[in-house]
Amino acid sequence: MLNKFEKLNADKQVLFLLGLSETVVDELSTSPNFEAVKNALKTCWEWLQNKEHSADDIYNLLDDGTEETGLFMLMQDETEELKELAFGCIVDAVSYTNWIAFQNEGQEYLPAPIENVDESLVEQFLEGFYQTTQANRLIAERLMSILEQINENQIPVLIRNRAQLEVIRDTEHFHN
């Protein structure tokens, strides 16, 4: 899967991670941090669609400097394994999006946690993603197949209609 991921352009890579994150975010629906997670994903989608948020804005969602409310800190509040895995996937996706956003802005100096982000983060993301449910390997393969087949002009349509990504998860034969 990593070889296929590396062949995607940056927008498709971000779309892959955000799309898969959307399939696990509901695991956090009872978490006190659910709104922070949803906001971070929304911000990343908006960045992907219109580049309307800066890399610094995205980073502040991960680490706001307070040691209390950034996603890096909030994920430590989760104690249930499934929630930890889902939160980890989302933090990985937001971190990767942030890394791409910094590259897109041509920034040379990155915050220390983002400085170490690269495609190897995708391996970590997928390991956690696959552990959340048996069906997730098939979901990832299906989304990858879609991204490999679409052309650049179709990316904005897929981003705008990201709710359709739920079809990947909700297809009857993918349920456990």
Structure description:
With 176 residues, the protein is an all-alpha fold. It is built from eleven helices and no strands. Helix 2 runs parallel beside helix 8 (120-132) and helix 6 runs antiparallel to helix 8 (120-132). Residues 171-176 have low confidence and may be disordered.
Estimate what percentage of residues fall within beta strands: under 5%
Could you name the ranges where pLDDT drops below 50 across 5 or more consecutive residues? 171-176
State the helicity in percent bands. 55-70%
Number of strands: 0
One letter per element, helices H and strands E, the order comes to HHHHHHHHHHH
Calculate Rg over CA atoms.
15 Å
Shape: globular
User: Helix/strand-derived class?
Assistant: mainly alpha
Q: What is the arithmetic mean of pLDDT?
A: 90
Give the biggest beta sheet: none
- Distance linking N and C termini: 22 Å
Question: Count of helical segments?
Answer: 11
Pick out its properties:
176 residues; mainly alpha
Layout of helices and strands, plus pairs?
Layout: H1 2-7, H2 10-24, H3 34-50, H4 55-62, H5 71-74, H6 81-105, H7 112-115, H8 120-132, H9 136-149, H10 155-160, H11 166-170
Helix pairs in contact: 2-3, 2-6, 2-8, 2-9, 3-6, 4-6, 6-8
